[in-house]
Each structure stands twice: as C-alpha cells, then as structure tokens.
Specification:
heterodimer; A: 340 residues; mainly beta; Methylamine Dehydrogenase, Chain H; four-stranded antiparallel beta sheet; 2 helices; 47% strand; B: 235 residues; alpha/beta; five-stranded mixed beta sheet; 10 helices; 12% strand; elongated; WD40_PAC1 (chain A); coiled coil (chain A); transducer (chain A)
C-alpha cells in the first residue's frame, strides 16, 4: 500500500511541475495578442460543384494532394474517387462492409484506404496494371473499430481505433511497425504533422496526444475538454493543434507552450463537434457538428463568421483541399458538394 | 414555441463521424428482422445512457457483445434501411409552418419579430427595397413567384425607410436580401443587382440562393436510382 501512495504522490508532483512550467511560459493570452486585429468579415461560400453517385449517407471524405481528386466513403458500401473539376467518377470501389468510418488518399495518389466496424484498414491500389482497382492489403490487428487512417507514404499508414490504440503499419508486409498505446478511451481521430514526423490523436478519454512517429513515444498530452474529442487537426504551420469535442467546443493548443490558447464556443451551440478543417492560412476554422451544421470560425478572434450550406442541416463530413482553394462537404442525402 | 415532434424526441446522440456509424449500425440491427430479440434488447440498453455502469462505459463506445454481433449483413435489408434513414432525416428537417405569399413588413418591430420569432426550421428571406430603385420591382415579382414554389420559406419585404435604419440601406445597396434562420443571419446580400444580369427572373434568384445552399430540395427522392448507380462508369 505504501508503494501506491508513493507513486500517487510522485504522479501528482509531476502534474504540478507541468502546470507550473506551463504557467511560466504563458506570457500573454491569444486575446491580448490579437486585440488589434479586426474580425474577418462574414464568410459566405458558394456551391461550385455537386458530386452525385452515392446511394446513401456520406460518412467520410478526403482530398488527394493534387487538389483535383478526392475520395468519399458512404453507407452504401462504396468508395468513390471523384474528379472534382469535371464531377466524373474516376473509380467506384465496392467494399466488403457498409459500415465504413474513414477513408484516406495517399499523398502519391496511388492508393486509397478505408476502414470501419470491420476493425480492419483496407488498402486499395488505384494504379493496378490491368486498370482494375483491387484490395492490396487488409491490415488486421486492431481489436476495435477503425475510426481514422492517414497515409505517411505508399509504404506506411497510421490508423486510430476504438481499441484505444493507434498503429503505424508497414503496408508492404501488412504488419504493425509500432503500436501507440496510452489513451484510456477509444481513439476517434488522428492527423499527421506537415513534416510527417509526428501525429496527433484525439480520444474518448477527453485528451489529445502528440506522438513522435520514429521514437514511438507520446511527447505531449493536452487536456481541458469536458468530453470525448471526436475530431483533431494540425494548424497549417504545424505548431498548434485544433480539437473538436462532444462538449460542443473546439480548442486550439499550442505545441511549444504545451497549453490551450483558446476555446471556440457559443452559448447557442449545444451539440458536439465531429469534424474540423482549418483554412490554408489558418485564419478560418470550419467545424462540423453532430446536428449536420457547419460553423465557420475566425480562429484568432474566436467568433463565428459564417455557416456553410446555409444551415440546411445536411453536412456529415468536411475537408479542405491542400491548396486551400475549396472545401468539400459530404451529406446524409448522398451528395458531396464543393464550395469556396 | 411549438411542441417538438415525435421524431425530435428520439434524436440519437451523435449522427456524424465514427460515432454516427456506430449509431446507424445499432439502429439497423434493432430494426432488422434477423436480429434475435435478446440482442435487440441488449442494443437498446447499451444505447440508452441510463445504465448504472455508465462509469465503465464512459470511455468505450462499443461493447464486446456488439463486436461479436458484427457479421455478414443482408444487403436487401441494408438497402431498405438506407432509404428509410434518408427519409427520416428529410422529414425531421422539413417539418415546419408553410406560407403562400410574400409578407409585407410595416416597420422595424415587425422586422425584428419575423427574424426572432419564426419556427427554428423556417428560412426567412427579407427583401429590403425602395420604390424607384432599379431592380427592386423586378426582385419583388421574382419573390412573389418563389413564394409559391417554396412554401416552407417565409419571404418578406420591407421598405428601406420603414426598417428604421434607413441610413444603413442607402439607394446604392438596394435591393438587398437578408436571409435568417432560427434568429441567425445566414446570408447578407447587398446590391443584389450586381450579382444578376440586366434582366433577371425568378429562376435566376432561385439559382443564386441555391448556390449558397440556402434553398431546400424542391422534391425529395428517398434514394437515387439504384439501377443508374449500378452502372457507374469508370474513366
């Protein structure tokens, strides 16, 4: 019993040290720093294209790095790769399971991946020799649902799962390279840093963790949310992390100061955030809520400056292209729309 | 404030993201004929956050028993379920009062009332006009037309001077269209004529509002044509 007391004291001591260290580096607040900045004017986005072809609710979408193609996953059990300029379907891939939670486009454009309630991450080769799209690998090791996956390259992919872990896979051999354990609740989302050296994960233990991919360690843990973190993303310059939670708020955490900078909340918003995407400059944050609305926030002033889709309550997922020129939304009525 | 419809009472916890998928799956299993009643009872108990062991379930979203239930699913049952899902969503977000013509607002109070007091699902489009300013008369007739085509939207118009904020609505920003929903300003379009050609019609205003995602679907198709999508072409 004595040893437990010792350990508990040590843990509390360390927590106090961290809190102190954070206080020391906090020389100002974000609000003070941007006091002289004017609020961004009202943002009103227009639909430029509508992508039709799915037969059911769109669960997830991800832009390709060429900013022209994107992939979407739907309850109809299909992955569709779209050319967003012509609205043509480049590939329509039937899936074994209809309960797909995530999809990802490889930076090279050669592969797409998806996963969901089947606990597996399926990798598809888009550039097969005979022109057909086939399953290249089925990465199975997670004991829980696959909530998110992101490619590092054509040979590595990171997945987050309802089994509370994240895994770095070797696609070639189909085996786990590193298992990132530490979260105490289902991992709901992950995002890779712009330099591909780190990744962040948000989980149902109300915390977000920053992991070093090569060293396989958890570098930092961010708390403050009062409920599950459903969505997570890097601030475009890689120095900050944005999280979206069931507590109806989004938070911005600075990596170097190791603390929260600001919370994006409004007394009128009472439902959880389930997806988020910052604009290229990082000035705007598009946050998708579980009532199918999307709010656009001025990230510096922490005020809402618009809504996407005129509040018609249809958006189930969002993504901003890497050149910042457009955002794509998926809907419960099977359509995807491109906006800017 | 109108009383909530039955559909609103049964709103599932989360509908988007991975939790949305879990929710949808649970709902499907509960409604699927092939699921044994004991399993249905288990699912209902799990998705109802009143259980005593809530502390244990706090961090884990799916139980061991549920993972075991995920097996080969019946495609036909799934297809029916998807159609039903979309139909339910559509009904949930379409219920609300209807209108048949453009309402003339007489003063600032009427303006505020229409913005703040309408049903939370009703889209309110207000046209601020002034007699003699180019485009106002044309826009008024366009809205008269759209009011009959979109009965769920409350179209209104008010003379700039009557708003009580006449200085803000000088001739050069008229005609102006403001769009509200649930007390929130969704769209603010000043000098509408700059977005339109010399001669414009109801269809042009309709297309304009559609671009900003402000108009509801006119006709709802529960599910896009199955045969059409089966023959999806690949480039």
């Amino acid at each position: 019993m004595g040893e437990m007391e010792e350990l508990r004291k040590e843990a509390d001591n360390l927590k106090d040290q961290i809190t102190e260290a954070r206080k020391v580096v906090q020389d100002t607040t974000l609000q003070e720093a941007v006091a002289g900045t004017t609020l961004v004017g009202r943002v009103q986005l227009k639909t430029r294209k509508t992508l039709r072809g799915h037969l059911a609710k769109i669960y997830a979408m991800h832009w390709g790095t060429d900013t022209k193609l994107c992939v979407s996953a739907s309850q109809d059990g299909k992955l569709i790769v779209w050319d967003t300029l012509t609205t043509n379907k480049v590939n329509a891939i039937p899936l074994k399971s209809s309960w797909v939670m995530t999809c990802a486009y490889a930076p090279s454009g050669n592969m797409v991946a998806c996963g969901g309630l089947d606990n597996m991450c399926s990798i598809y080769n888009l550039k097969g020799k005979d022109g057909n799209v086939k399953v290249m690998r089925e990465l199975a090791a997670h004991t829980g649902y696959l909530s998110c996956c992101r490619f590092l390259s054509d040979s590595e992919i990171i997945t987050s799962s309802g089994d509370c872990t994240c895994i770095l896979w070797d696609i070639e051999t189909g085996t786990e390279k590193t298992i990132f354990a530490g979260h105490l609740g289902d991992c709901m989302s992950l995002a890779v840093s712009p330099d591909f050296k780190m990744f962040i994960s948000g989980a149902c233990d109300f915390t977000a963790k920053l992991w070093d991919i090569r060293e396989a360690t958890c570098r930092q843990t961010f708390s403050g949310h009062e409920s599950d973190i459903n969505a997570i993303g890097f601030f475009p310059n890689g120095n900050a992390v944005i999280t979206g939670s069931d507590d109806a708020t989004c938070k911005l955490y600075d990596l170097r100061a190791d603390q929260e900078l600001i919370t994006y909340q409004d007394s009128g918003i009472m439902c959880g955030v389930t997806s988020l995407a910052p604009s290229l400059s990082g000035r705007l944050l598009l946050a998708g809520y579980d009532d199918f609305n999307v709010n656009i926030w001025d990230m510096l002033k922490a005020e809402r400056v618009g809504v996407l889709a005129g509040h018609d309550n249809r958006v189930s997922c969002i993504g901003v292209s890497s050149d910042g020129m457009a955002c794509c939304t998926g809907s419960w009525d099977s359509f995807l729309k491109i906006w800017n | 404030m109108s009383s909530p419809t039955p559909a609103e009472d049964e709103v599932p916890a989360i509908q988007t993201g991975p939790k949305g998928v879990i929710n949808d799956w649970r709902k499907f299993k509960c409604e699927d004929q092939d699921t044994p009643p004991s399993k249905k009872a288990l699912l209902r108990q799990i998705s109802n956050p009143q259980s005593d062991d809530i502390h244990d379930r706090l961090n884990r979203k799916m139980s061991v028993q549920e993972y075991e239930m995920i097996a080969e699913e019946d495609e036909k049952g799934l297809r029916k379920y998807r159609k039903q899902c979309m139909k339910e969503m559509h009904e949930r977000f379409s219920f609300g009062p209807t209108f048949d013509s453009v309402v003339e607002l007489d003063n600032g109070e009427a303006f505020l009332e229409v913005i703040e007091k309408e049903h939370r699902l009703t889209l309110v489009v207000v046209h601020i006009y002034k007699d003699g300013v180019k485009g106002c008369e044309a826009l008024n007739s366009c809205l008269d037309c759209l009011a009959t085509e979109y009965p769920s939207i409350k179209f209104c118009r008010i003379e700039a001077a009557a708003t009580g904020a006449g200085e803000r609505f000088s001739d050069d920003v008229l005609p102006a269209m403001l769009v509200y929903k649930a007390g929130e300003l969704l769209g603010n379009f000043l000098s509408m004529t700059q977005h339109l050609s010399e001669e414009f019609f109801a269809a042009d205003i309709e297309a304009f509002l559609n671009e900003y995602g402000l108009l509801p679907e006119k006709e709802f198709v529960a599910c896009p044509d199955e045969e059409e999508a089966a023959g999806v072409e690949v480039e």
